[in-house]
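Practice problem: predict the structure.
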Amino acid sequence: MPKNRLTKPNSQPDPFVQKFFARIPPQTAATFTPVQLAELKRVFENRVSRNHAVDMRLSIPFFKKRFYLVFLLGREKRIKQRV
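Answer:
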């Protein structure tokens, strides 16, 4: 992972940044600025850190494969009119 990237106050690498860099080529990872990484983290955190009133996640065996089922229920917070 390139140096001088998002770190926590105790100088530990940020787990989000580590996972992000693990999934992209090193030459691409080296091009991100700290500001760009902070914005990516903000956007992804908003998507995955929402709390739901109901959050059911099941793994279902089906013949020789496994499938998953996710049921989320919560108050609608998006705007009414979407594209």
